[in-house]
Amino acid sequence: MKYDKLTMSAGPAEIHPRVSKAAAEPILYHYDPAFKQLHHGVEEKLKKLFLTSNDIIIMQGEAILGLEAAAFSCIRPGDTCLNLVTGVFGKWFEDFIHMYGGKVVEIRKDYNSSITPEEVRSAFEKNPDIKLMSVVHSETPSGTINPINELCPIAKEYGAITLVDSVSGVAGSEVRTDEWGIDICITGPQKCIGAMPGLSLMAVSPDAWQRIAASNPARNTFLSMLDWKEKWLTHGAFPYTPSVSLIYALNAALDMIFEEGLEAVWKRHGDCARACRAGLKAMGLSLWPESEFIATDCCTAFKIPEAIESASFIEHLRETYGVVISPGYGELNGALLRIGHMGHTAKPMPVMTALTFVGKALRDRGFPAKIGDGLEAALSELY
């Protein structure tokens, strides 16, 4: 028997019907005063989400556009950049640094670990010419998190610009952009915010704008952050046609977050993450992160039991029980599996359902998952 699918992937996440309905509203001309007012309103809501008084720009492309735009705008040939690597996405950012002529100083840890403040301070002491520090806050492929609240203030002490990839962190866990000294914070709507992919949401500090202006990046290109600042934020003219329907959806998702309360949303994600981890451990599985202290709240990564092949297991789970989860990504493919719990799916019912059928699918493949124990452990974290 075929069932409706429950998407518990590591993103994009399932979205609430209210968000889908908003996206289906009639298209407004992007210079219609009503749309311009809506766009400005979304920017103000994003300031509340990022906990910032800095400028907000919304670039028209999935969050990788924002990450490359930040590198393009800030890095010039010969600049020394400190890149913190604890996973696939952290390592990939080095491609952008090299692309725009930067010299990389790398702190690399195992992909089940996180960076320490001592390591960052040491790197700055040894390389006082570092101009930019880049770090992934929530490494979705690894299910881990870096302590940006401790790392970014160190970079600011040494006069560096801080660039934080929090694509799967913002809304799912605490992010205090101004308080923590984050100059460019980038997220996407398709993870814990609970909307669909296609936008880069960026908070940009005065220090970052000063650095960008001094770097003198090319203009009139889709990657130009300065075009958004000078054309839209200053003169009210969009440099390119905005993604109208995606702005509608984002607006609805943000309204839902603030109706619930931002701290309540953080707590809901944290509760569901703890429940998922507890459930998997009680079933007899091992978590991927070396410590739960560094486990992200957007998804739970766990090691694949021996003799179970990742791709066929995921297909069996999807086709037999209607639950969709994610494999490992990049070089972690085949080493781990990931259950997402973000946005609309960061709730007890989806998490309990996912645990039930992951356990059943594991039993089907010969692993003696203790489903009852897992559900009891998860419930104890939730209620």
Please characterize this protein's 3D structure.
This protein has 383 residues and is an alpha/beta fold. It has two domains: 6-13 and 261-382, Aspartate Aminotransferase, domain 1, CATH 3.90.1150.10; 18-258, Type I PLP-dependent aspartate aminotransferase-like (Major domain) (Aspartate Aminotransferase, domain 2). The protein has helices at residues 17-23, 33-50, 63-74, 88-99, 117-126, 148-157, 206-215, 225-233, 244-260, 262-282, 310-321, 348-364, 371-382; strands spanning 6-7, 55-59, 80-85, 103-108, 130-136, 138-139, 144-145, 161-165, 184-187, 200-204, 299-303, 323-324, 326-327, 336-340. The strands form four sheets. The protein has a seven-stranded mixed sheet, sandwiched between helices. It has a three-stranded antiparallel sheet with strand order 11-14-13, covered by helices on one side. Helix 10 runs antiparallel to helix 13. The radius of gyration is 21 Å and the shape is globular. The mean pLDDT is 96.
